[in-house]
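2024-03-11 09:14:02 DEBUG pipeline.ingest accepted 1 chain
2024-03-11 09:14:02 DEBUG pipeline.ingest length=736
2024-03-11 09:14:03 DEBUG pipeline.predict start
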Amino acid sequence: MATFLYRLGRLSFRRRHVVALIWVALLTLAGVGAASAPTAGNSSFSIPGTEAQKAFDLLEQRFPGTSADGATARVVFKAPDGQKMTDPGNKATVQDTVKDLSDGSEVVRVTDPYRAKAVSKDGTIAYAQVSYKVSGMELDDAAKDALEDSARDAREAGLTVEIGGDALQAVPHTGSSEVIGIAVAAVVLVITFGSLVAAGLPLLTALIGVGIGVSAITGLASALDLGTTTSTLAMMIGLAVGIDYALFIVSRYRAELAEGREREEAAGRAVGTAGSAVVFAGLTVVIALVGLSVVNIPMLTKMGIAAAGTVAIAVLIALTMVPALLGHAGRKVKPMGEKGKLLGRAKKEQDRPAKPNLGTRWASFVVRRPVAVLLLGVIGLGAAAVPATSLELGLPDDGSQPTSTTQRRAYDLLSEGFGPGFNGPLMVVVDAKDSDDPKAVFAKTGDEIKGLKDVVTVTPAQPNKAGDTATITVIPGSKPSSVTTENLVHGIRDAGTDIKADTDAGVLVTGSTAMNIDVSEKLNDALVPYLVLVVGLAFLLLIVVFRSILVPLKAALGFLLSVMAALGAVVAVFQWGWLSDLMGVEQTGPVMSMMPIFMVGVVFGLAMDYEVFLVTRMREAYVHGEKPAQAVVTGFRHGARVVTAAAVIMMAVFAGFIGSSESMVKMIGFGLAIAVFFDAFIVRMAIVPAVLALLGRKAWWLPRWLDRALPNVDVEGEGLRTRTDRDDENRELVRA
């Protein structure tokens, strides 16, 4: 591995013009493809194998032409103080609005509040529901403008009017904080390298890699049904790992220059050593992201594969374009210890009295006090993980939106006028095709549901034209994300089992609330198999890298600590409301259902990044003859500064997405940022050296039979050292 990458690094350095042109051409090609591709709609959200999805599919078959997957809008009206919605003037305004809404070419139907009995008991609030032929992201701007114009006209007549539903769904934006994250990364790089050129290389290559990845996703979005969140998450992860991978290559290159090597040789050795760590670190991230497909949720699978593709591009760019740009930079990238004029230091550190750096001093302290450091780290992470014990899962709806949005205000008005459960109606689908008396089955099902707890309203069954299938709408008494509503869904399904046994009729529950419950249960069921798959594969990979059993085991256990602590922090902020104002969280509630499994996948991959980068330096020192404790100190002397910079950069990039208008992206950005903090600064910087110091030589133990069976990937660059020694001997012979 190291020898192959060494040759690749030297080739890229020599052929730097060709390599740079190839990547620029790929960026241009991807950009043209993205610009010419049709606009992608909102990704379809299907959950194969769940009851809610089966009911949805049955509706498509038995109720054709109803556009069950089309956008909906609830136009909510509230009368002025002291008036009723049934007053003649207000009623005329609402009916004019309904008439205007019906004129749209994409409109399927508009319900009249007075005919549909959609007026609250106190008469102050009413709503009209608009159904469209296409999804919210596919609606023409003209249709959205007509919806907003109709609402504005009703407001001018004196009514309070708000619009809920997904018809006004907008593409999420991340805000200026994303740019701030990149700016912080730039500052950290300048401080680390002391040179604008050296600092600019990781940023430039990361932006090129993300540009290619996101452009490719945009170009394929329509054909592959990729949602807008897919490219946002790919950009988030691609930027973070792209900067980090390039940072490690450039840092090793400067270290090789400091040892007196020529620039081409230094580039080759940097790619051969640090590049090997980049390959395996990137591979763990890719495994974790692609492994999300085991959950069998198409949207999550696409997000994982798209992000994994962006990570793979970041690895290839680090191995080829970074050495090529180092060749272009020439002497502007200075050896380690030699600062440019930017920081006012041009004198080499070797000309000064030797002084241990902060990484060396910290590692020496940990090696002397391993038990105290280990206990402090574990107890601290354990305390941070406590809130995770009260984790509640759900999917965001209009109730989680900021109060400044019309969707949230419509949600609140409906709750005020019709009760909190009105925003999460349950649709019960009764399949009586195999029953002798469908009408009796429909009536029996309605009566059974009325007898359940927390049921406010049960509408009469609405059969299809064939009369063999009907829908019943159930309004719960509790809000959609409550445990009580979840219990009601299970209660209806239990009653449906009894009805099936008595009448051979199937009873299915669907709707957004039931879908959210099914998603949460599916994700919970998939979490353990996913952990076994991803952690198992990465464990085997790390055994090959470190040629040890205990080091990979320690890495996996440390990851579990950091991810549980990060989930605890997410619960504290987004569910309990701690620091919610600082994070821009206007509405607390359940944590997004896919957050735990997504964090497990991404955080595991990123955690292994730091494990590989830091511990391979220790392994390298140990293989070359140092004692275990001294190898830990050596690893920190060479790697702590760079790992710290990489972690700060990754935290800054992830934290930049906290400013997103999309609650899912906001939550993931915060979760990943805090997880990187816990993993890099507590697990890898404190717990890892403490455990290695306690284990001593046992840390690097590997059974002989397994040592013989494993391939030798030579991450430490031992082959390069042998090659260098041989070249030195040949030069001595030539001189003789």
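2024-03-11 09:14:41 DEBUG pipeline.report The chain has 23 helices and eleven strands.
2024-03-11 09:14:41 DEBUG pipeline.predict end
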